[in-house]
Amino acid sequence: MKRVLADLHYFPSLEFFTAILDSDELLFSSSDRYQRQSFFNRCQIRLANKVETLSVPIVGRRPKISQSAIRIDYEQNWEKIHLRGIQSAYGKAPFYEFYFPYFEAVYQKKHEFLWDLNWDLLTICLKLLGLPVKIGMLNEVSFSTEIQDIRRLISPSAHFSERDFYTPQTYFQLFGSDFESNLSVLDLLFCEGPASKSVLLKSAKKD
Questions:
Q1: Helices (H), ranges, the chain
Q2: pTM of the predicted model, to two decimals?
């Protein structure tokens, strides 16, 4: 059984999913410290004229607290901004009407903690992608078998080409003739639907 220890991202990128594609169990550590400038609270989607970053605002900027203690700042109207952004980007995509209600329902829960929001979104993404990987929390039992630790490897500070997880494979996108690689999984799901898993399999770097 292959176990992978990863960071919990907000609407993870295609690179994230190619990195965990062949795992049987995906583990997360809620005690890990919050890191600024990470994918924990941001993702990228494609609009008509540009790639847009969606960021979830958080309460405070204290890097020494654990990720599970990071609260979402609801004084900013970020949910409507994100939903409008997703609708603007993918409202005309082939599978938008099938998948959007799943994500909209998660926003309506108004999670207090970003960790819980990300967990719910990841669970839905794995289901829609048809990936049977189990997800769980790291504990003492987890260390009884070998674990591949990819935490801190996938970050905005370095281009994906510097890592060994993802090789871009083109698929249908709504805007323009130039393909934008390694966007949020939202882009792939809304544009390719049930074919998304096949695209990920082709995009995973081979040993």
A1: 14-19, 78-90, 96-108, 114-129, 185-192, 196-203
A2: 0.95
